[in-house]
């Protein structure tokens, strides 16, 4: 058995004192190196940052990719000069996003889109994620509004339509020259200035006119693109049917070739009211013979300028009229027109139209005993037969040997068009 060490007696005071613990071993000189200490601190910080970045990336990606709250596509306007916080507030108010505005701002920074956000009107798709929303604004593909300008309107009427449309901004300095705007369907973003709209319509008209002029029939009688527009504007106001434009163009071309007055009612109206386009009452007999640069019952050939802004189809018809010998046309009662080469055949068509109008009137309204009978075709003593032209509703005079009556049952004309349709329920009345 091993012997236990002898117990040394201790004094009471010594027994109360703690035993001396040996000091810990000293760290090596390498561990105490300041570079090692700094390196360890940096490594620890990097680990913490990596963990934090991973967490932010994970949750940030969830925020960016999670489908949004929109239940259906929605158009939202981002105002000009709006900051990132303003845009976030608009999107949140419109229900496009449902995250905190600061989350939106964070997403913008994460996608490096801070300087690429563009104002405008945007269409956000159903359930668009935050990433999709930001991408839509960055791409700048704003909503394009379709604006249709009908054929046959005057420049003043077109400007009025632009001023009444609230998607455009700004004013119009002056009314464009007649015939310089191309009626068509255009697409513009909200906020486009009205001057820009007019410039685009003028540029399109120049391009289309140049193309049509290059392809014109070499036998066409008009001598310049400007005269082509003038003839096309008369065709535009005379018929709204696509299948008749070239034949109406042939009638006027044949009359120009034979030096016969065109005698087109829409030219009288333009001479009376100018760019307003609509007379608002029947043409008076005195106005038919009233001298005017635009009155083709008085002047020879074409008027001095267009009476409206013709569309592409009417320009094509004027440049390439049908090959016919027609000199007259009158409504046939079915929505179209009857074309003839001789005055006698034309008078028969006028008589048919008048009989049809009278029958329709008898079927709808019982005539009064003292009501005057409908004017018979050829009642006038005019001995100079000229082209038949359809009359606008409420602006037709009784047929004369020189002038055929308006169409009877043509379809309703396009807005702004005159001379393309005539009601069948009431005979025309001429104011003296």
Describe the structure.
This protein is mainly alpha-helical and 432 residues long. Among the domains are: 74-139, Endolytic murein transglycosylase (Dna Ligase, domain 1), CATH 3.30.1490.480; 144-210, no CATH class; 224-360, no CATH class. Helices cover 39% and strands 6% of the residues. The protein contains 13 helices and six strands. The chain has helices spanning 12-16, 34-65, 84-93, 101-110, 130-139, 155-164, 194-214, 225-238, 245-257, 265-273, 285-288, 312-319, 343-364, and strands at 74-78, 120-124, 144-148, 185-189, 328-331, 337-340. The strands form three sheets. Strands 1-2 form a two-stranded antiparallel sheet. Strands 3-4 form a two-stranded antiparallel sheet. Strands 5-6 form a two-stranded antiparallel ribbon. A hairpin with a 5-residue loop joins strand 5 and strand 6 (337-340). The radius of gyration is 42 Å and the shape is rod-shaped. Mean pLDDT is 81; it is low at 367-432.
Name the average pLDDT: 81
Please trace the helix and strand order, writing H or E for each element: HHEHHEHEHEHHHHHHEEH
For this structure, the quaternary state is single chain
Identify low-pLDDT runs. Answer: 367-432
- Secondary structure: number of strands: 6
Radius of gyration based on Cα positions: 42 Å
The rounded distance between the terminal residues' Cα atoms is 155 Å
Number of DSSP helical runs = 13
Question: Helicity range of the residues?
Answer: 25-40%
Quickly give the structural class.
Answer: mainly alpha
The main sheet orders its strands as: 1-2
Shape: rod-shaped
Query: Largest sheet, described in full?
Result: 2 strands, antiparallel
Strand percentage: 5-15%
């Amino acid at each position: 058995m091993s012997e236990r060490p002898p117990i040394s007696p201790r004094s009471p005071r010594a027994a109360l004192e703690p035993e001396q613990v040996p000091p810990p071993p000293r760290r090596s000189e390498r561990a105490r190196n300041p570079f090692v200490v700094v390196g360890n601190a940096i490594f620890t910080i990097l680990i913490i940052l990596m963990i934090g970045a991973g967490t932010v990336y994970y949750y940030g990606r969830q925020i960016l990719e999670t489908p949004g709250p929109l239940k259906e596509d929605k158009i939202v306007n981002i105002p000009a000069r709006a900051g990132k916080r303003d845009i976030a507030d608009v999107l949140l108010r419109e229900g496009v996003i449902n995250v905190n505005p600061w989350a939106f701002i964070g997403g913008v920074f994460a996608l490096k889109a801070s300087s690429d956000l563009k104002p405008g009107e945007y269409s956000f798709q159903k359930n668009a994620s935050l990433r999709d929303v930001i991408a839509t604004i960055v791409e700048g593909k704003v909503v394009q509004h379709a604006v249709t300008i009908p054929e046959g309107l005057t420049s003043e009427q077109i400007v009025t339509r632009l001023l009444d449309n609230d998607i455009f901004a700004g004013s119009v300095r002056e009314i464009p020259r007649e015939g310089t705007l191309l009626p068509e369907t255009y697409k513009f973003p909200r906020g486009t200035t009205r001057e820009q709209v007019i410039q685009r319509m003028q540029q399109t008209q120049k391009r289309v006119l140049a193309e049509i002029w290059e392809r014109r029939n070499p036998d066409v009688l008009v001598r310049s693109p400007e005269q082509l527009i003038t003839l096309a504007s008369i065709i535009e106001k005379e018929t709204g049917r696509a299948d008749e434009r070239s034949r109406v163009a042939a009638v006027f071309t044949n009359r120009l070739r034979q030096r016969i007055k065109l005698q087109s009612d829409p030219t009288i109206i333009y001479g009376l009211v100018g760019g307003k386009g609509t007379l608002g009452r029947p043409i008076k007999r005195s106005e038919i013979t009233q001298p005017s640069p635009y009155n083709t019952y008085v002047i020879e050939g074409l008027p001095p300028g267009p009476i409206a802004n013709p569309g592409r189809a009417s320009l094509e018809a004027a440049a390439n009229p049908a090959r016919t010998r027609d000199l007259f046309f009158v409504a046939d009662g079915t929505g179209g027109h009857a074309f003839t080469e001789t005055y006698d055949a034309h008078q028969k068509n006028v008589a048919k139209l008048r009989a049809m109008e009278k029958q329709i009137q008898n079927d709808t309204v019982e005539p009064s005993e003292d009501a005057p009978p409908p004017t018979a075709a050829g009642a006038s003593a005019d001995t100079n037969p000229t082209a038949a032209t359809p009359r606008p509703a409420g602006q037709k005079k009784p047929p004369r040997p020189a002038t055929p009556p308006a169409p009877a049952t043509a379809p309703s004309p396009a807005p702004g068009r005159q001379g393309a349709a005539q009601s069948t329920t009431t005979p025309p009345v001429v104011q003296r």
